[in-house]
């Protein structure tokens, strides 16, 4: 008997709804899957009937490949599977060969028939295979919450057999929706906001504002670690590290105490706009959530947006803290985000910041500052770090 081929069969959902544009998204998903598997041995990557199939070699590391596929945005499931034929006798033998090595008391067959030329309907496949497994194993069929589910996926000229489905991120493949600039801190919210826009197909360019030497380097290291985690979803990332303390000092020296936070944020937005212009990005992204802190009231968000040249996307705008924390835990950023550090957002912060800022008032205050010079002087001292798929950090002192 010819041994069955071991593979991963990968499913996507939202892309299937794109009709005339589907091939565009599938090509990007294909490329991203190749990038995700770079450096691990496998035989081939192919597409069949709205699925991606990763054919494995005997030496392929199954667990590592599964873990990598679970980070490919666009995939909803990736399933370690075996390939069988569409001959029912051979299919039955192959399934029993796989099932007999497993421990279970109850089971069910879950068949899908993508190839409508296959002579049996899905319920008939379920019944026929279920009868054989029940007779040979002596175990019981249970349709709800069985110990073992045998998935049988009939496609084109082959059948995939598998027993578990590893959940992927879903969404649209990264780079299918253009570039955005994410303002990232070392906190909980902004990495989650970045993850949300990655799932909508955006490629993220990161910008972090720091206050060295007035603060310690821990905030920069936290951001590097956070971006390295997010980099698993887009395979190559860039961080603009922008020194912010000199600009903060000028705001502290020449503006009212209560308005400082709003002025900081407007300056950050202007600098992020410069990053977006350089990178040809289409929008800015922040981790704002309505009312979470004083700078995130509707009035203050409006004043902050007033300083932007591009739209500001706020993926967490309606989320509460528990929802944000749950997502941070699920993607692996939470434990890093809660590590103690001091960053520019906690430096020179007034005890009672303005919560209901007005655009006309803030503009008048900025008229007393040389905003353009402040921005240009700060921009000149930017530094750029690149994070590759292997999470290696390159530090560029020239800003190129």
The 3D shape can be described as elongated
CATH superfamily of the largest domain: HUPs
End-to-end Cα distance, whole Å, is 59 Å
Strand content: 15-25%
What order do the SSEs take from the amino end to the carboxyl end, as H and E? EHEEHEHEHEEEEEHEHEHHEHEHHHHEE
Report the total helices. 13
Q: What Rg is obtained from the alpha carbons, in whole angstroms?
A: 26 Å
CATH topology of the largest domain: Rossmann fold
Structural class: alpha/beta
Q: Uncertain regions: pLDDT < 50 for 5+ in a row?
A: 391-400
> Helical amount among residues, as a percent range?
25-40%
Mean pLDDT: 92
- The CATH class of the largest domain: Alpha Beta
Specify the CATH architecture of the largest domain: 3-Layer(aba) Sandwich
Q: Work out the number of β strands.
A: 16
Describe the main β-sheet briefly.
9 strands, mixed
User: How many discrete structural domains?
Assistant: 2
Structure explained in plain terms:
It is a single chain. The chain has 400 residues and is of the alpha/beta class. The chain has two domains: 163 residues, VC0802-like (2-Layer Sandwich); 218 residues, HUPs (Rossmann fold, 3-Layer(aba) Sandwich). The chain has 13 helices and 16 strands. The strands form two sheets. Strands 1, 2, 3, 4, 5, 6, 7, 8 and 9 form a nine-stranded mixed sheet that branches. It starts with a strand and ends with a strand. The C terminus is likely disordered.
In short:
It contains 13 helices and 16 strands. The strands form 2 sheets. Strands 1, 2, 3, 4, 5, 6, 7, 8 and 9 form a 9-stranded mixed beta sheet that branches. Strands 14-13-10-11-12-15-16 form a 7-stranded mixed beta sheet, with helices on both faces.
């Amino acid at each position: 008997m010819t041994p069955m081929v071991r593979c991963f069969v990968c499913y996507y959902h939202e892309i299937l709804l794109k009709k005339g544009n589907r091939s565009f998204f599938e090509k990007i998903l294909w490329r991203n899957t190749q990038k995700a598997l770079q450096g691990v041995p496998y035989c081939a990557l192919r597409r069949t009937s709205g699925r991606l199939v990763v054919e494995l070699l005997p030496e392929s590391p199954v667990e590592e490949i599964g873990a990598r596929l679970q980070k490919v945005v666009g995939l909803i499931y990736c399933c370690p599977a075996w390939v069988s034929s569409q001959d029912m006798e051979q299919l039955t033998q192959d399934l029993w060969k796989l099932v007999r090595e497993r421990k279970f008391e109850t089971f069910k067959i879950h068949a899908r028939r993508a190839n409508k030329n296959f002579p049996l309907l899905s319920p008939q496949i379920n019944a026929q295979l279920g009868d054989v497994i029940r007779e040979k194993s002596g175990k019981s069929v249970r349709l709800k919450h069985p110990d073992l589910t045998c998935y049988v996926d009939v496609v084109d000229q082959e059948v995939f057999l598998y027993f578990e489905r590893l959940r992927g991120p879903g969404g649209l493949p990264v780079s299918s929706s253009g570039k955005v600039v994410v303002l990232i801190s070392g906190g909980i919210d902004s990495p989650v906001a970045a993850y949300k826009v990655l799932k909508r197909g955006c490629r993220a360019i990161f910008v972090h504002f720091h206050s060295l030497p007035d603060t310690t380097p821990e905030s920069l290291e936290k951001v590097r670690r956070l971006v390295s985690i997010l980099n698993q979803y887009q395979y190559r990332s860039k961080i603009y590290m922008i020194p912010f303390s000199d600009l903060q000092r000028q705001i502290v020296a020449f503006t009212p105490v209560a308005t400082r936070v709003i002025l900081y944020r407007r300056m950050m937005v202007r600098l992020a706009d410069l990053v977006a212009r350089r990178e040809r990005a289409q929008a800015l992204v922040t981790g704002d959530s309505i009312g979470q802190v004083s700078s995130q009231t509707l009035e203050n968000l409006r004043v902050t947006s007033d300083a932007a040249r591009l739209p500001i996307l706020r993926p967490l705008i309606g989320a509460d803290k528990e929802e944000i924390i749950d997502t941070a835990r699920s993607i692996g950023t939470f434990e890093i985000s809660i590590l103690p550090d001091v960053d520019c957002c906690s430096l020179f912060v007034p005890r009672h910041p303005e919560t209901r800022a007005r655009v006309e008032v803030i503009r008048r205050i900025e008229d007393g500052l040389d905003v353009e010079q402040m921005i240009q002087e700060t921009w000149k001292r930017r530094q750029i770090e690149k994070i590759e798929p292997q999470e290696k950090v390159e530090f560029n002192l020239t800003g190129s």
